[in-house]
Amino acid sequence: MAKVKKIAVIGECMIELRPEITDAGYSRSTIDAATVRRHLYLKCSIFAMALIAAGVSLAADESKVIRLSEPVEQTADTESFGAPLDESVQAVSLEVLASDGDNYVGQSVRVVARVAQVCQKKGCFFIAQEGSSVVRVSFKDYGFFVPSDISGKRVTFVGEVVTREVTADEAAHYAEDLGAEAVPVESGKVYEIVATSVRVPRA
Questions:
Q1: Contact assessment for residue 175 and residue 137, using Cβ atoms and an 8 Å cutoff
Q2: Which pLDDT score, from 0 to 100, does residue 180 have?
Q3: Tell me, what's the pLDDT at 71?
Q4: Cα dist. 142→82, 92, 138, 202 in Å?
Q5: What is the pLDDT of residue 42?
Q6: Across the 203 residues of the chain, what is the mean pLDDT of every consecutive 10-residue run?
Q7: How far apart are the C-alpha atoms of 9 and 11, rounded to whole Å?
Q8: CB atoms within 10 A of CB 110
Q9: Separation between Cα atoms, residue 75 and residue 10, nearest integer Å
Q10: Please, what sign has the CA dihedral across residues 121, 144, 140, 81?
């Protein structure tokens, strides 16, 4: 007499009761509905765990830190990107630069400020903020980048103060690179810093 295959289907999971099941210790007479449910539960559980693992892996990829440049200097507490930071450069607060930038255009300055947001695509610029003062910081000759996870950290950077007109299209482009939670970059005349060095705390 021809062998009949038994198949149970629940939702999207299917199990076929093959002869090898009897090899595992079941007799054909004992392969009943309870046995089907047990084997089906096992297969569905494995399938569900595989989906969860895939989801966790995808989430990890999405939150991956972009780090396109290696530090030029490292200590136990900090990393420096670009060039070694020159401590002899004059220190100027971000508030002074934002309110009185004309007096510093063309000069090199050393600034300590909080990173409000950093470019999430490459780490090719960040927004420095102190109180209501906001300044965009880019990197000389597009020559280095900072890690994309430095938002909220207080960094020290050295660079030249420049002034230029930001178009509405540029402001929109910056907003796209920074992400939805970004501090807005306004169009019009702005002061920016073209940095040669950025020192970032590890913690």
A1: no
A2: 52
A3: 97
A4: 10, 24, 8, 23
A5: 53
A6: 45 44 48 54 48 41 80 97 97 92 96 94 92 91 95 97 85 66 66 96 90
A7: 7
A8: 18
A9: 59
A10: positive
Beta-carbon neighbour count of residue 151 at 10 Å?
Answer: 18
Q: Which residues of 159-192 are buried (b: 16+ CB within 10 A; e: fewer)?
A: bbbeeeebeeeebeebeebbeeebeebeeeebbb
pLDDT on residue 124: 93
The first and second tokens of residue 5, run together, are 């295959």
- Pick the closest to residue 114 from 85, 153, 157 (CA basis): 153
Q: Is the pTM of this model over 0.85?
A: no
CB 135, CB 193: distance < 8 Å:
yes
To the nearest 10°, report the CA torsion of 183, 189, 194, 199: -30
Residue type present at position 62: E
